[in-house]
């Protein structure tokens, strides 16, 4: 496959960025998208040019590091992570535009790398439970109804990649936030801090500069773990209950 790549290059957070065009040739359709970028970087290094900075870690669709806007779509044309997107999803001669996540809360560090520490600060604000340390309790000592357990596991699948924010016209992080609130809110261990948790996390979300949710639905459509939009409904219900209780 021969492709034309238009890639966002930005030397640093305060520097002016621009789109730069790179032709790549003899790309195997079995390569992952990141492997294709690796090949391009090897060519750039061989020519004495600065390689393109992009995030990756596990390359197994688990860590959520590899977020890219590919021709206007978060993670590209398939519902998966960028590292699990393969070049057979494209055609010979295609022109592909590659950009970082675009959101005020995700400032560009360099090229395609953005700072997603805003998500970490939301978790630090309340995305946890307080529990005594020590040996693990017997697994059946705290019964959990299966529907609640299933829903908690579904929400816990969120990997915090930020595709929901990048896809949302408002740059809202509500799908991420809803998944984290739902994950703990469905379990008995999450109940003591449930009201305080949702208030603290929503406040931190807004302080970070994320936009508000207007139920457009692009977030759940772009989510590589297929987190449903109804976790936002659960988030809103928890928030209303917390306000009603005076938390």
TL;DR?
The protein has 247 residues and is an alpha+beta fold.
Strand content: 5-15%
Low-confidence stretches: none
**H/E order of the elements?**
EEHEEEEEHHHHHHH
The helix content, as a percent range, equals 25-40%
How confident overall, as mean pLDDT? 95
Strand order of the largest sheet: 2-1-5-3-4
| CATH level 1 name of the largest domain | Mainly Alpha
CATH superfamily of the largest domain: Alpha-helical ferredoxin
Number of strands: 7
Cα(first) to Cα(last) distance is: 58 Å
Rg, nearest Å = 20 Å
Structural class: alpha+beta
How many distinct domains?
A: 2
The major β-sheet equals: 5 strands, mixed
Number of helices: 8
Shape: elongated
Can you characterise this structure?
By secondary structure, the protein is an alpha+beta fold. It folds into two domains: 3-110, Beta-grasp domain (Ubiquitin-like (UB roll)); 116-129 and 141-244, Alpha-helical ferredoxin (Fumarate Reductase Iron-sulfur Protein, Chain B, domain 2), CATH 1.10.1060.10. Helix content is 35%, strand content 11%. It is built from eight helices and seven strands; from the N terminus they run E-E-H-E-E-E-E-E-H-H-H-H-H-H-H. It has helices at residues 33-46, 117-126, 146-156, 163-167, 174-185, 194-207, 218-222, 230-244; strands at residues 3-9, 18-24, 69-70, 73-74, 95-99, 108-110, 113-114. Strands 2-1-5-3-4 form a five-stranded mixed beta sheet. Strands 6-7 form a two-stranded antiparallel ribbon. The mean pLDDT is 95.
């Amino acid at each position: 496959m021969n492709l034309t790549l238009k890639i966002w290059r930005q030397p640093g957070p305060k520097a002016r960025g621009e789109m730069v065009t790179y032709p790549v040739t003899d790309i195997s359709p079995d390569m992952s998208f990141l492997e294709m970028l690796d090949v391009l970087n090897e060519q750039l290094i061989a020519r004495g040019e600065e390689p393109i900075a992009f995030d990756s870690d596990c390359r197994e669709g688990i860590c959520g590091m590899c977020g890219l806007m590919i021709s206007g779509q978060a993670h590209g044309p398939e519902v998966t992570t960028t590292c699990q997107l393969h070049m057979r999803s494209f055609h010979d001669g295609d022109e592909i535009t590659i950009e970082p996540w675009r959101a005020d809360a995700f400032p560009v560090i360099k090229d395609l790398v953005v700072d997603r520490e805003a998500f970490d600060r939301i978790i630090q604000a309340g995305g946890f439970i307080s529990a005594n340390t020590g040996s693990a309790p017997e697994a059946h000592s705290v019964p959990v109804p299966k529907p609640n357990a299933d829903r908690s596991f579904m929400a816990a699948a969120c990997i915090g990649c930020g595709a929901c924010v990048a896809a949302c016209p408002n740059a809202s992080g509500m799908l991420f936030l809803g998944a984290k609130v739902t994950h703990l809110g469905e379990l008995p261990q999450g109940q003591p801090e449930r009201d305080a948790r949702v208030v603290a996390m929503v406040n931190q979300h807004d302080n970070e500069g994320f936009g508000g949710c207007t139920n457009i639905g692009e977030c759940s459509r772009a989510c590589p773990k297929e987190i449903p939009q109804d976790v936002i409904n659960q988030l809103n219900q928890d928030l209303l209950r917390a306000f009603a209780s005076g938390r």
